[in-house]
Design a protein that fits this description.
The complex is a heterodimer of chains A (156) and B (112). By secondary structure, chain A is of the alpha+beta class. Chain A has one domain (9-155): Histidine kinase-like ATPase, C-terminal domain (Heat Shock Protein 90). Chain A has four helices and five strands. Chain A has helices at residues 19-34, 39-60, 112-119, 147-155; strands spanning 9-15, 68-76, 79-85, 122-127, 133-140. In chain A, a hairpin with a 2-residue loop joins β2 and β3. Chain A is globular. The relative contact order of chain A is 0.19. With 112 residues, chain B is α/β, with parallel strands linked by helices. Helix content of chain B is 40%, strand content 25%. Chain B has helices spanning 26-38, 56-71, 83-91, 104-110; strands at residues 5-8, 11-14, 18-20, 43-47, 51-54, 75-79, 99-101. In chain B, the strands form two sheets. Chain B has a five-stranded mixed beta sheet. Chain B has a two-stranded parallel ribbon with strand order 3-5. In chain B, β1 (5-8) and β2 (11-14) form a beta hairpin. In chain B, α1 packs parallel to α2. Chain B is globular and about 30 Å long. Classes of the chains: A alpha+beta (156), B alpha/beta (112). The interface between A and B is medium-sized, with 22 and 22 residues.
């Protein structure tokens, strides 16, 4: 699979089964490896995607295997942009309990969004009512120069 | 995947390997902790040295294990955190909850 750093794009559609979380993380990290993204950054992005997909399956689609989660991975400028979309009705991010509050530290769940926000630069939600919820995550990365760029520089 | 358990000076040591992630190692960890507690273990040490990946579900299982053991009057501590696990414990501020040790000898002594 050859990538251009100009317009790389990966699109995945999975059924809402937790075993698919692993597949998406592997595909995204493989794409990042193709782009020669540093391993630590790749691992952070992979973890954020894993958490986003797990939330889409569990909370968005309520683990209904007939519902799909789509993952769209692209480069925009010097950013990796990943959009994870479910078929759920959405939620109010402001009402998600803060897992860092002392009373919440011993809760066994609720840390996924915290990790996503920590590992990515920008996180936005697009609530599309009956058409599902999209989580859009962005992270600045150092992309390698393309051959055409190198050639232009060498000619100058 | 079954998590191996061994004993040292009355401490139960659980040694998960690979992933503790949603649907992979999280359930195995829960079962191993419950099995140890049901067998009468009061003090449990989880050696995370061979853990390659952990996610929020895996962290949740560690927290649930901590609660299960302490609610029964026992102690649960963590040993040999790989850098990735350390990072996530830092982000989630769970370093304030868990007693984390770097050597088994030191860990065993800390229970007494």
């Amino acid at each position: 699979m050859a990538y251009s750093t100009r317009e790389p794009r990966v699109h995945l559609e999975i059924g809402s089964r937790l075993e698919n979380v692993e597949l998406v993380q592997i595909a995204v990290e493989a794409s990042l490896q193709q782009l020669a993204i540093e391993e630590g950054v790749s691992c952070q992005i992979g973890t954020a995607v894993r958490e986003a997909v797990a939330n889409a399956i569990k909370h968005g689609n309520k683990s209904d295997a007939s519902k799909q989660v789509s993952v769209d991975f692209r480069i925009q400028g010097d950013e990796i942009v990943i959009e994870v979309k479910d078929e759920g009705v959405g939620f109010d991010p402001g009402r998600v309990p803060n897992p860092l509050e002392p009373d919440n530290l011993l809760r066994p769940n609720g840390r996924g969004i915290l990790l996503i926000r920590e590992f990515m630069d920008r996180v936005e939600y697009d609530f599309q009512n009956e058409r599902g919820t999209a989580l859009i995550m962005r992270k600045h990365v150092e992309l390698p120069q393309e051959d055409s760029d190198r050639q232009e520089e060498e000619e100058e | 995947m079954k998590i191996p358990a061994r004993h040292n000076s009355g401490i139960t040591i659980l040694e998960p390997k690979g992933k503790i992630t949603i649907g992979v190692g999280d359930v195995a960890l829960r079962e191993a902790v419950h099995e140890a507690v049901d067998a009468g273990a009061q003090n449990i040490l989880i050696n995370l040295q061979e853990v390659t990946t952990i996610d929020s579900s895996g962290i949740g299982e560690l927290v649930a294990a901590y609660t299960t053991v302490t609610n029964r009057g026992g102690n649960l501590k963590l040993l040999n955190l790989p850098p990735k696990v350390q990072d996530i414990l830092q982000i989630t501020q769970l370093f304030t909850v868990f007693d984390v040790l770097d050597s088994e000898e030191e860990a065993i002594a800390s229970f007494s």
